[in-house]
Write a structure and sequence with these properties.
- With 62 residues, the chain is α+β, with helices and mostly antiparallel strands.
- It has a single domain, classed as Alpha-Beta Plaits, CATH 3.30.70.
- It is 24% helix and 19% strand.
- Strands 1-4 form a two-stranded antiparallel sheet. It has a two-stranded antiparallel ribbon with strand order 2-3.
- The longest helix is centred in the C-terminal third of the chain and has 10 residues, at 44-53.
- It starts with 5 loop residues before the first strand and ends with a strand.
């Protein structure tokens, strides 16, 4: 699988779990955001882990 797109849907609670899992891809301030310019292929496992562990299931990727 080659992840080419990562996004966060509405409903983020800014818990910080995604950032603690992969701070190269995710940043949490008022809510989580996906950082631009990252080669997602290099962080596939971390992105998948962040999405699977998101308590509100708003992290999506393809």
């Amino acid at each position: 699988m080659a992840i080419s797109k990562v996004w966060i849907e509405e409903g983020c609670t800014a818990c910080g779990l995604c950032e603690s899992t992969c701070d190269v891809v995710f940043r949490v301030e008022d809510e989580a955001v996906v950082l631009e310019g990252v080669n997602y292929i290099d962080f596939e496992q971390e992105i998948i882990e962040a999405a699977e562990n998101c308590p509100v299931e708003v992290i999506k990727f393809e």
